[in-house]
Amino acid sequence: MSRTILINESPFGLRIMAADEEGRPVRLLYRLRGQGPQAGSVYWARAGRRDKRTNLQRFDLGAGGEGVLPVKDRQVPEGQMALLGVRREASGGKLPLLTDRPSIHLPAATMRPGSSEHRPGPLGLLEPPGSIGFLKDKPKAPGPAAGVPPAALLLASAAKGDTEGVFVSSGALSAMLKPFVPDDIPIEVASDLPKEFAAVTADAMNRTVPLEEGGALIIDETEALTAIDVDLGTAAGQSARGAGDSLRKRVLNELGRVLSVRSIGGQVVLDLPRSAARAPKVLRDGLTAALKAHGAVSIPAVTKEGLVILVLGQNRASLLETLTETGVDAPLPGRRFRPAVEAWMAYDDALSATVEGRGLGTVSLTPAAAQVWKDADASSALLGLRGAEPSLVVLDRDSERTEA
Predict the structure, then answer these.
(1) H-helix segments, 128-239
(2) What distance in Å separates the CA atoms of residue 324 and residue 404, rounded to the nearest whole number?
(3) What is the tens place of the pLDDT at every residue in 84-107?
(4) Residue 358's Cα: distance from chain center in Å?
């Protein structure tokens, strides 16, 4: 099954989407401006104290903030510099998780310090640009050890060997990515990417995911785990056994894609009707096959009552956590878009307005989102792209922010 990659850059950050040959999204990643250390990046880090309770040692990453490294008897002396990689991005209030076996995962190469030979990446093997490499000497201050564009790392996370084309939002982004992508995979500039991302993101924020021919996945994310209730729906003329078997197949066809698009990892509890789980081994084997393409997965339990526990690998926050937040005026389970995302949505709408002939008009934002807009100089970006600036209106209260 072939896939197409779409990459959009704006003053607020980067986002990337992978779509299958039917045009269905199979991966959706956002990286907001100033988000913090990115999975796959490498830092020279200064060792701090070790927490003996957790066997985690803190490291100063410079402008990247802090991260933690699992240690036991091999603690790095406090104050010493070490070359470390970011294994998992910050999420759920936890600092980035580091590794002392760093490597840079590019779209068409995996680089390791001290080695002149590179392993293939998801798009094959291509000699990395000469500007990409590890600093050979320890610097005096902590910071990035290799100058890898964030878009290249993001592309490596979404690409697969069946990628047949990459569409980007600007010529500058195309030129930057070209050295990282094999010549047989074309990179083209497309003007309508913001609209496509907006539609896919809106779908990914929905709590309910309808299944073909009836039924639905109802998804509830918490910091501890993700619960997915499988609704049987109605299907006239089916026996309980037939309806259960049919539902199980529809769930297996959709579950992996849904988890991948939403970047859901960690512990996932699946609650199916008993009729769909009457043969636990069949269900377990089906889940293993369906989720194999989406990374490491373990299935500690499958019961005949329909409860399934999945444990999935995760190297970044879920899409919901990346794009939304809770607040005093948005009690759980309600969430609202982060200020940067709210500003980005307004930017997308302004771009679409000019394409549709509506003009830029007015951009209305809460104080927090308006500040993000100003810091990103979004009005000047629109002036460069569309030859005009919108009028910025700041709302009176943060409580008027858009709910997700």
Answers:
(1) 150-158, 171-177, 193-204
(2) 7
(3) 999 999 988 899 999 999 988 999
(4) 32
